[in-house]
Write a structure and sequence with these properties.
Layout lengths: L14 E5 L4 H12 L3 E6 L4 H11 L4 E4 L5 H15 L4 E4 L14 H11 L1 H16 L3 E6 L2 H5 L5 H21 L4 E8 L5 H6 L3 H10 L12 H8 L10 E4 L8
Helix pairs in contact: 1-10, 3-5, 4-7
Family: Belongs to the short-chain dehydrogenases/reductases (SDR) family.
GO molecular function, one term: oxidoreductase activity
Keywords: Oxidoreductase
Length: 257
């Protein structure tokens, strides 16, 4: 069971853009920002019309849903422009869209490799590049890149996904150094194995869940809502001197430092 969210007054009315917000971790993040009173836009290839209605009914704050594919860079750029026109210049970007399809490394094709990086890495850079001038013009902003604990653990059958998430941390550190003088903070979050519907449908068998639970320091399996507090912290001025860092939220599976 997740606890109550801290309130971050500076996120109220903030213009927030989330990629991959229709389901799973992304939907939990969208809802978390809505509960802060933020103006939230999210971009996803799935039809999220019902999700939008449900969120507004629960929270009383309606997100702006823009449908499209993050591998279509012009569409992603246009979506960010739409969000800025509707809600004001984007001052919080959460790059979350990802595809963790499993592959046997020996059989992986070039097309499959390229497809994986097109989802899991390229949009992270171009979304950041797009919002950076908006953030600078408004006095600064925060970018949170969703990486993955899989790269810390070197999980098998996920070679291009793990490579992408290692690269996300490298990208985070490089941009944080380059854009810090513009008032832009950039951090990453590395979730552990979160029991989303996709995971439970495809890979999280009862046996697999119990094996993973045994690796955690904390006994509860992680839910999407467990990522919200950390992301809100990194997006808010509560973390105003935190940049170029990775926040690992995995119930204690990996060891860092």
């Amino acid at each position: 069971m997740t606890g109550p969210e801290a309130i971050h007054p500076d996120l109220k009315e903030a213009s927030v853009f989330v990629t991959g917000g229709a389901s799973g971790i992304g939907a939990a993040l969208v809802e978390g920002f809505l509960r802060q009173g933020a103006r939230v836009a999210f971009f996803d290839r799935a039809d999220a019309a019902e999700t939008v209605e449900a969120m507004e009914a629960r929270i009383g704050n309606r997100p702006l849903f823009i449908q499209g594919d993050v591998t279509d860079t012009p569409a992603l750029m246009a979506a960010i422009d739409t969000a800025a026109t509707t809600h004001g210049p984007v001052t919080v970007l959460v790059s979350n869209a990802a595809n963790d399809t499993r592959y046997d490394a020996q059989d992986l094709t070039e097309a499959e490799w390229d497809s994986c990086l097109d989802v899991n890495l390229k949009p992270y850079f171009f979304a950041a590049q797009k919002v950076a001038p908006m953030m600078e013009a408004t006095g600064g902003g925060a970018i949170v890149n969703m990486s993955s604990g899989s790269y810390l653990m070197g999980v098998a059958r996920l070679a291009p996904y793990v490579a992408s998430n290692a690269a996300i941390m490298g990208l985070t550190r490089s941009l944080a150094r380059e854009w810090g003088g513009r008032g832009i903070r950039i951090n990453a979050v590395a979730p552990g194995w979160v029991m989303t519907e996709r995971q439970k449908e495809l890979w999280a068998t009862p046996e697999a869940q119990e094996r993973h639970r045994a690796q955690q320091c904390l006994p509860e399996l992680m839910q999407a809502e467990d990522l919200v507090g950390g992301v809100l912290f990194l997006a808010s001025k509560a973390s105003r001197m935190v940049t170029s860092q990775m926040l690992v939220i995995d119930a204690g599976v990996s060891v860092t430092g």
